[in-house]
Amino acid sequence: MTTMTPAPTVASTVPDPRPISHARRRRTRSTPLTIAMLAALAYFLLPLFWLLVASTKSTQDLFNSFGLWFSRTPQLLANIRATFTQDDGVFVHWLLNTAVYAVVSALGAALLAAAAGYGFAKFRFRGDRAAFNLVLGAIMVPATALAIPTYLLFAKVGLVNTPWAIILPSLVNPFGLYLMRVYAADAVPDSLLEAARIDGAGEARIFFRIALRLLAPGLVTVLLFTLVATWNNYFLPLIMLNDPNLYPITVGLSSWAAQAQNGGAGASSDMLPLVVTGSLISIVPLVIAFLLLQRYWQSGLATGSVKQ
Amino acid sequence: MASPKFSTVALEQGVPPPTAAYARKPRRAHMPRRRSGAAGPLFVAPFLILFLLLFLAPLGYAAYLSLFQQRLIGGTVFVGLDNYVTALKDPLLLHGVGRVALFFVIQVPLMLLLALLFALALDSGLLRLARVIRLGIFVPYAVPSVVAALMWGYLYGPDFGPFAQLSRNLDLPAPHFLSDGWMLGSLANIVTWEFVGYNMIILYAALRTVPQDLYEAAAMDGAGAWRVAWSIKLPALRPALLLTLLFSVIGSFQLFNEPSLLMKIAPDVISSSYTANLYAYSLAFTGNQVNYAATVSFLLGLVIVIASYAVLLTANRRRAT
C-alpha cells in the first residue's frame, strides 16, 4: 500500500519536534503581502474616516472643503450638541430605544437558544428530531421576507407601533439555536451532568448553575450577533412603528436624511451635519462592544462554521 | 447550598476519565449519551412556542391572506391562487427578482473571494500588523447598513463626495456612481464593504481550527505556502465557505436597506420596484394592496428557500463525487 501517505507517521516519529516549531516562529514576514493588505484596510477604513472628518464640519464646510481632510473651523462638539438637541432631544430617545430593543432581544434570544440548544443536545424525547429539523429549515427563511407577514399579523392583534413589535420577532433566532446545539453537544460533558444528577441536583439547577457557565462563549456569540442584528435592524421597525418617539436610531437617521434631502441638498440644509454626526455616534457603541468581546465571538463562530 | 461544592468538584474532575468509565458500561452504550425524561421538552418549549407564534403563524397568515383579494364591489373575496398567477406574470416583480439574481451572481463571488484571500493572508503568518488588519476589515460589519448606505451615498454624491471633488480639481469628468448604469455596482460595493470582514472572520476562525501537526507534516514534505493553502486549507474551509454562501444567498435576495436609502438621493434611478423586497414593501405600505403584498413576500421567501437548497444540493453533490 504505497498510496498511504507517509506524512503523519513521519511527523510523529520525528525525534525532536522543536526545530520545526522554532522555524515556524521565526518565519519571515512578507512586506509585499503586508502592503497589499494595508491597501485593502484603507478601503475599509476610509469611509469611516470620511464620516469622522465630515462630522466636524458645518454645512458650508461640507461643500467647500475637501471631504477627506478637516476644515479650518472644526466644530465636532457643536455638531454633537445640535444632534442631541434637535426636535427636543429625539435623538436621545432613538439611542435609548435602540439600546433597549437590542439588549432585551439579545438577552432573550441568547437564553432561549441556549436552553433549547441544550435541550436538543442532551435530551431525547418524542419528536425531538422533527422539531429540530423544522427550526433548521427556518434558517433559510429570511427575516425580511418574514417581516411583512409579521406586520400583517401584528396589525391584527394590535401589537403594531409598540416596542414589542420589534423585540418579539428578534427573540427567535434559528441559527442561534443551531449554534447552541452544536456548542452544547461538545462543551457540556455528559459525565458532569450525571455527576450532578447523582448529587441530587434538579435539571433546572443543573442548567443554570453548570451548563450555562460552560455554554458562555457560545452564548456570548449568539448574544452579540442578535445585538448587532437588532441594533442594525431597519426594515422591521420601519414598517412596525409610526411614532418617532419609538424609532430606533436607524429609522430615525433615515427620516432625518430624507428631511435633509427634501430641504434641498444644497448648502442651506441644516440637517446634513446632524445626519452625519448622528451616524458617527450610532456606530460607536457597537464597535466598542465588538472590540471588547472579540475573544468570545471569534471562538463561537469557529464552532458554528466547522461543524456542518 | 450543595451546588457550588459539587459543581467545582465535578469541574475539577474534568472530562476524559469519567466519560470513558461510563461509556464502557453496556447499558450506556445502548442509549448513547442523551437522557430521556420530562426535562428535555421543557428546555425546548419556550423557543418552540415563540417559533410557532412568531415564525410559523405569520407565514401561515400571509399564506391565508394571499388567497384573497379586496375589491371595490363585494369587499374581500376568496380568489384561490389568482394572486400567484398575477405575481408570476407581474413584470415589476420579475424584474426585481432578476435584478437581485444578477446582483447575487456578481457581488457574492467577488465578496467571498476577497474574504477568502484575506482569511488566507491572515492565517499565513506572513503579515505584519495582522491583528490590526483583521479587526479593521471587520469593523464595517458593526456599522448599521442604514449608516453604511447613507455614508456611501454621500461619498458617491456629486456635490461634496470626495470622488467628485477630486475629479473637479483635476478637471476630469466626475464618475456618475448614482446613474442608471452604475447603480447596481455602487450597491454591490456598499454590500461588499459591509460584509467582507464578517465572512473573512468566519473563514479565518475555521482556518484556526486546522490542527497544527498537519502543517508540520506538510512542511516536512516540503510543501510551500501555496501548496499548503490549496491542499490543506481550502478543503478544511469547505463547510465554512458553504455557510457564508448560504448567508449570502439569503442576504442578496432580500436586498432592501441599501436601495431604499439610495432611492432618496437617486429617485429617478431606483424605482419602488427596484428589488423584489422593495416592491413588496411599496405594495403593502404605499399601494395598500395587503393581499398582493402577502403573495409577493410569500413568493420571495419561496425563491430564497429554493435558491438556498439549490446551493446546498450542488455543494453536496460535488462533495460526493
UniProtKB/TrEMBL annotation, chain A:
ABC transmembrane type-1 domain residues: 95-293
UniProt keywords, alphabetically: Cell membrane, Membrane, Transmembrane, Transmembrane helix, Transport
Bilayer-spanning residue ranges: 33-53, 99-120, 132-154, 166-185, 206-231, 271-293
InterPro entries (alphabetical): MetI-like (IPR000515), MetI-like_sf (IPR035906)
SUPFAM superfamilies, sorted: MetI-like
Gene Ontology cellular component list: plasma membrane
An example Gene Ontology biological process: transmembrane transport
Cellular compartments annotated: Cell membrane
Record Gene3D superfamilies: MetI-like
Lipid metabolism is among the record's keywords: no
Pfam family membership, one: BPD_transp_1
Primary localisation category: membrane
Composition-biased stretches (Polar residues): 1-12
Family per record: Belongs to the binding-protein-dependent transport system permease family.
Protein name: Carbohydrate ABC transporter permease
Species, as recorded: Streptomyces himalayensis subsp. himalayensis
